[in-house]
Amino acid sequence: MDTIPAPPPIPKPGTTCVDVEWRIAEAPVGYADALLQMEARVTAIHDGSAGELVWLLEHPPIYTAGVSAAPDELLAPARFPVHRTGRGGRYTYHGPGQRVGYAMMDLRRRGQDVRAYVHGLEDWVIGALGEFGVTGERRTGRIGIWVVLPNGEEAKIAAIGVRVRRWIAFHGIALNVAPDLSHFEGIVPCGLAGYGVTSLEALGVAASMDAVDAALKRAFECVFAQTIR
Q1: Which one of 178, 190, 211, 223 is the catalytic residue?
Q2: What are 163-189's pLDDT values in tens digits?
Q3: Regions of the chain where pLDDT drops below 50
Q4: Cα–Cα distance between 83 and 88 in angstroms, integer?
Q5: How far is CA 154 from CA 47, 149, 180, 183, 197, in A?
Q6: Mean pLDDT across the chain, nearest whole number?
Q7: Which pLDDT score, from 0 to 100, does residue 2 have?
């Protein structure tokens, strides 16, 4: 299996991308701590004391439950910690090898259209996947980004969950780079029984996290550069 070389490095934390700060965590960040930091940034963005932020990170293994999560979709409640959160969606898994992208965005500057914003997040992931020769697709009634496997079946490669407070959006995307896919067996991912979960690694793409981060940065610029009013 050939390893895709890392493209040129992306800006260091504290620099900007399309007027958006771009930050990368060097070590895993606990989910509860990440929520506290996001909440504080959302307040600061609303008050005008801070700008928009994209924060790329990994979490220790955890199951998170969105506002629509059903109790019977948690199949192994003792396997990993479970955190109930205010984002949209149902159960999902976060853990090592998965790139989480938290986007704290001011929709007052971006049309105040939540549906269009979610569409933009989908385009962001699809664009990044395309750099690795992977075709990510939407599916009606199935949130997230999907790929068609060689056997013709469909599997989910990225989850999307958003919360909006006073027109400031937060949470974001979770792209499976090289996680332990067996960890998803403790939940019904996003409430979609009967569908598998995949990753870049499972698709034969040996991409480093640095390469994924750089692809996400370029795709973000393509999608969101023209949406600021």
Answers
A1: 190
A2: 999 999 999 999 999 999 999 999 887
A3: 1-17
A4: 14
A5: 43, 6, 18, 19, 9
A6: 89
A7: 39
Concatenating the DSSP letter of every residue in 142-190 gives: EEEEEEE-TTS-EEEEEEEEEEEETTEEEEEEEEESS--GGGGGGB-GG
What distance lies between CA 100 and its chain's CA centroid? 4
Domain ranges of the chain: 14-224
Q: Output the pLDDT for position 18.
A: 54
Q: Which two tokens stand for residue 204?
A: 């034969």
User: Is 222 part of the annotated catalytic residue set?
Assistant: no
pTM for the structure as a whole:
0.89
Question: Could you tell me the two tokens for 159?
Answer: 């989850």
Q: Does domain 14-224 have CATH number 3.30.930.10?
A: yes
Residue 88 pLDDT: 76
Residue length of the chain: 229
Relative to beta strand 20-24, strand 53-57 is parallel
In 35-74, which positions are buried (b, 16+ CB within 10 angstroms) versus exposed (e)?
bebbeebbeebeeeebebbbbbbbbebbbbbbeebeeebb
Q: Copy the structure tokens of residue 40.
A: 């504080």
Alpha-carbon span 73 to 193, nearest angstrom: 9
